[in-house]
Amino acid sequence: MNIEYKSCKNLPCDQLYRLFFAVGWVKENQATQEIKTTQEMMDHFNIGFLNSTFVFSAWDGDTLVGCVRVLSDLHFRSVIYDFAVLPQYQRRGIGTELLKRCRSACRDSEWLVQTDTARIFYEKNGFQINNDDFLTIPCKWFS
């Protein structure tokens, strides 16, 4: 397995959709709704990525196998969104590498992520539970 990591916001909508579907974020019934709505959604499926501060992705050849996007003020706070790795590629260090790339982009920032299913993964990667519903890495300016 030779995974290539990229920093590119313009991820292909069809591959991004397949990744989200594979991890359960797109439900079967959404994919079969009215054609016009589905096509409009597919044409703009990467809009959140295009408008994010950072986007990191993992590729196996021409196949998108993982991605993460970050919204950040580039100094105090950075929030992780839409972090996904194809199930058959999980537990191979791809997610950890994507998180490392995020944190390297804003080393001193407080990092936030909201999750209910991947809490253990984030804790293993340095995030801590706080009093909010976010796991965080404290910002050096506010700790």
Characterise the protein shown here.
This protein is α+β, with helices and mostly antiparallel strands and 143 residues long. The chain has a single domain (3-137), classed as Gcn5-related N-acetyltransferase (GNAT) (Aminopeptidase), CATH 3.40.630.30. It is built from 6 helices and 7 strands, in the order E-H-H-H-H-E-E-E-H-E-H-E-E. It has a 7-stranded mixed beta sheet with strand order 1-2-3-4-5-7-6. Helix 5 links the parallel strand 4 (77-85) and strand 5. The longest helix has 12 residues, at 94-105. The chain is globular, with a radius of gyration of 16 Å. The termini are far apart. Residues 33-37 have low confidence and may be disordered.
What's the short story on this structure?
This protein has 6 helices and 7 strands. With 143 residues, the protein is of the alpha+beta class.
Keywords:
27% strand; 7-stranded mixed β-sheet; 143 residues; single chain; Aminopeptidase; alpha+beta; 7 strands
Mean pLDDT across every amino acid position: 86
Q: Major sheet: order of its strands?
A: 1-2-3-4-5-7-6
Biggest β-sheet description: 7 strands, mixed
**Strand pairing plus helix content: what structural class?**
alpha+beta
What's the CATH architecture? Answer: 3-Layer(aba) Sandwich
What is the percent of helical residues?
Answer: 25-40%
State the low-pLDDT regions, or none: 33-37
**SSE pattern:** EHHHHEEEHEHEE
Percent range for β-strand residues: 25-35%
Could you give the distance between the termini?
40 Å
Shape: globular
Question: Class, according to the CATH hierarchy?
Answer: Alpha Beta
Oligomer: single chain
Tally of distinct domains = 1
Specify Rg, calculated over alpha carbons: 16 Å
Number of strands: 7
CATH superfamily: Gcn5-related N-acetyltransferase (GNAT)
CATH overall fold name: Aminopeptidase
Number of continuous helical runs:
6
